[in-house]
Amino acid sequence: MVTSLEKQVVIVGGGTAGWMTAAAFARLLPSGCSITLVESEQIGTVGVGEATIPHIRYFNQLLGIDERQFIEATQATYKLAIEFVGWGEASSRYMHPFSAFGPDMGGVDFHHHWLSARGALPNLSLDSFSLAAQLARADRFAPPPPDSDLGYGYAFHLDASRYALFLRRYAEARHVTRREGKVSRVVQAPEDGRIEAVVLESGVRVEGDLFIDCSGFRSLLLGQTLGVPFESWKRWLPCDRAVAMASEPLDTPPSYTRSTATATGWQWRIPLQHRTGNGQVYASDFLGDDEACEQLRQSLNSHPLSEPNLIRFEAGCRARSWEKNCVAIGLSSGFLEPLESTSIYLIQMAIIKCVEFFPAARDQTFSREAFNRWMGLEYRRVRDFLILHYHLNRRTDSAFWNGCASMDIPDGLKRKIDLFRESSTVEHYEQGLFAQPSWLAVYLGQGLSPEGWDSRAMPAAQTTMVRSLEAMAARLRELARGAPEHREVILRGGLKREPPAAMNLYGERHGQ
Fold first, then answer.
1. Which of 138, 272, 418, 437 is the most exposed, fewest CB within 10 Å of its CB?
2. Taking the alpha carbons of 211, 217, 220, 223 in that order, is the dihedral positive or negative?
3. For 444-470, what is each residue's pLDDT tens digit?
4. Which regions of 248-400 does DSSP assign to beta strands (E)?
5. What are the tens digits of pLDDT across the range 358-411?
6. Nearest Cα to 441, choosing from 140, 110, 120?
7. Same-domain pairing of 271 and 320
């Protein structure tokens, strides 16, 4: 009889989701578990998610992965922020850094003080008070200072295919079995529909107790076999195409990702050591595929290294990520465009929760329900934050952006926007990825002007407050200019000594 410590786990699909899952399971599950990953070299992976958020550092540290080895293996560069160009007005530009903005002052959040004084600070945007943003602006990088109110997080730009290969070697060294082949048939138990095995085209039958669906957009197990429906969010996130191209590496790789709004969507630029990742996300109702490819070619900052790779998608997620004895992780569970680099984060969260709720009995009703609530909420929280970017635009140059500005949005998001517009208050989520600094970056960066703020932030001596804020911004600029160039840090192989993650179980830190 198979006991709770002798589970047979079968992962269907490789890529980033499959090998992140295999590596984490090999490290974290009981030693009696057997882990088999089934993948076919004939089936390609999306391979677009090359920008990350700081949680990936916790994932790597949890696996005992050395950061310098990781950087070398994945040709990674450091990431301190995302720059948004043209998302407010066509000429607007702001940073969303992995940090807070300024220290609390007198028990009042910093942004209230900045709002009360900004009329006298025309040249100091909110990101002037983030060291991470200032470092990014200067194309520099340094580890966060310990025990300081200037702290910030950092992440990476990485080659997702190389990361998957790196984790494959890690997992196989820890007794994960890889089986090559395409799944031709899924075998279900006649009495309750649970998955018993997958059968490969070669005729090989792979049996398991728990199946992890990492089959990508096909959702072979969760969607096709178990029939869990897909909930579309296209009415709020209308982009349904992406075209990606690689180009030569930049001479001076920035320590941030760039997202540039276009007339029908947006373009990304992700600097790696060996190449630059470029892409265009757009709505096919407003732009044809050939025209999108040509627009992307024209926007490249370096010589192209590949032909355009067209990806079709629809924003949304499955009604449930865990059904019977199958857990979907990655694209098989849901898809949200990479505007805030959340794809790998959502994979990571599903893996950690799956480990936490790892089935110890055949009936996992309450664990399954808890997992589905958690992941459903994660997807919806990210969804709302992405909708925020589109809805708060102030562009008037296309029907696409006019439609985004005037569309009906989820009630919870509308309430958050109205609260901030009225009082500069950011409604706190008890669960979910994006904390106050992230919402502030987008609210204020895209031109949402609050009508009021905390009355305690109205200084009696306005001149004194203005001088204090000017001095604070000047200090941050000086610190940023004194830091090493990002390019030099990468050429040295990364940080000599990785700073501690200081994150909780889910990698939550610095507003992300």
1. 418
2. positive
3. 999 999 999 998 886 656 778 889 999
4. 256-262, 265-271, 276-282, 309-312, 316-318, 322-323, 326-328, 334-335
5. 876 677 889 999 999 999 999 999 999 999 999 999 999 999 999 999 999 999
6. 110
7. no
220 & 337 share domain: yes
DSSP helix/strand/coil, 83: strand
On whether both 172 and 288 belong to a single domain, the answer is no
Q: Which residues are catalytic?
A: 79
* Any domain includes 394: no
User: How far from 168 is each of 176, 213, 278, 297, 428, CA to CA, in Å?
Assistant: 9, 17, 26, 33, 38
- Residue range(s) defining the domain that contains residue 306: 241-312
Query: Domain end: 312, 340, 374, which one?
Result: 312
The reply to whether 199 falls in a domain is yes
Residues of the chain with pLDDT under 50: 1-3, 502-512
Tell me the pairing of strands 8-12 and 34-39: parallel
pLDDT tens figures, 345-373: 999 999 999 999 987 667 788 999 999 99
The answer to whether residue 497 sits within a structural domain is no
The values of phi and psi at residue 95, to 5°, are -105, 140
Domain-embedded: residue 222: yes
Q: Within 10 A of 496 (CB to CB), how many other CB atoms are there?
A: 9
**Euclidean distance between CA atoms 159 and 306, whole angstroms:** 15
Report the alpha-carbon distance of residue 317 to residue 449 in Å, rounded: 33
